[in-house]
Design a protein that fits this description.
Length: 308
């Protein structure tokens, strides 16, 4: 099981880096070519960069915990690992949430004054959401640092090995619990955007039902594409959150090495597989990826007869 999970983690790591790297490369090349970049491409590029950092951070942390026992983990290593993970994971989740808000305000059809007000000020909405996420990031870092300082004081007061081992189990539990609490906030926002998009699509289909028999007009297609993207994001988000709960639950078991690989697979699947969803949900990225794959396939077909 450990070997199988290790291979899955490596596959996810490679897939995520290729997918996120592809998103960054295509958007930057398009930016250089056109001398401008759209708002959605800015969000996608920032999201892909943060996802790459998350993947490398998660991979390094899993490798470190597989090599060192709990008692051998130094305070400095715990602090650095936690800080990098909190920052990269927080930005990754909130940028995906901002993307959900962007899709909702751009695609949904509502006549409410508050919705029209937010749509007309989409840039400000995105900026305010980003500022709120940065404030929550500051609070998250502050809370986790308080936990770590308290843990250090307890270690200095009691130097016995058994106490250190028991106390080390408690501090990761508190850090994971804090991480879960702060990830539930953007999850609630994204879920709200998803259901509002469904309601908007239902209203749109009901409105055009008496006009045309074809329900796949431009607005309907945009609704369905956005719903697929947001739903895939929420599904991977649920897997990610469930993996955090498994990580929290694993601290109750002495033999918990198997849990490290199990919840690592779920945690890494979020920044890894979501990049593929974003590529398939974006017309420019999808067409470019298909073009690249067709070129590679033609080169492979040319090289095979030469090798034979």
């Amino acid at each position: 099981m450990n070997i199988m999970c290790s291979w899955v983690i490596i596959w996810q790591f490679i897939t995520g880096n290729l997918g996120n790297g592809f998103i960054v490369l295509v958007n930057i090349m398009d930016w250089v070519k056109r001398r401008k970049i759209s708002s959605v491409d800015q969000i996608l590029t920032a999201l892909a960069i943060s996802r790459t950092i998350v993947l490398w951070t998660a991979y390094i942390i899993v490798s470190i915990f597989s090599m060192y026992h709990d008692a051998e983990m130094t305070m400095k290593r715990v602090r650095i690992n936690n800080l990098i993970w909190v920052i990269s994971n927080h930005l990754s989740i909130w940028l995906a949430t901002i993307l959900s808000i962007f899709y909702f305000l751009k695609i949904a059809n509502f006549s409410y004054s508050i919705f029209l007000y937010l749509r007309w000020r989409l840039t400000k909405v995105v900026s305010v959401t980003l500022l709120v996420s940065l404030f929550l990031l500051f609070v998250n870092i502050l809370v986790t640092n308080i936990y770590i300082h308290i843990w250090m004081d307890h270690l200095k007061a009691n130097v016995s090995y058994s106490y250190k081992l028991k106390n080390f189990t408690e501090i990761p539990r508190l850090l994971v619990l804090t991480n879960i609490m702060f990830t539930l906030i953007p999850f609630t926002v994204s879920t709200t955007m998803f259901f509002l998009l469904i309601f908007s699509l239902w209203k749109h289909l009901k409105k055009i039902k008496h006009i045309t028999k074809c329900s796949r007009d431009a607005s309907t297609t945009a609704h369905i594409t956005a719903l697929k993207t947001v739903f895939a994001f929420l599904l991977l988000y649920v897997i990610f959150t469930f993996s955090l709960f498994v990580q929290l639950w694993s601290y109750d078991f002495k033999e918990k090495k198997i849990f490290h690989y199990f919840y690592a697979v779920g945690i890494i699947s979020f920044p890894s597989l979501h990049s593929c969803v974003l590529i398939m949900g974006n017309s420019k990225l999808r067409q470019t990826s298909l073009l690249v794959l067709s070129v590679l396939w033609c080169k492979i077909q040319r090289c095979v007869p030469l090798c034979l």
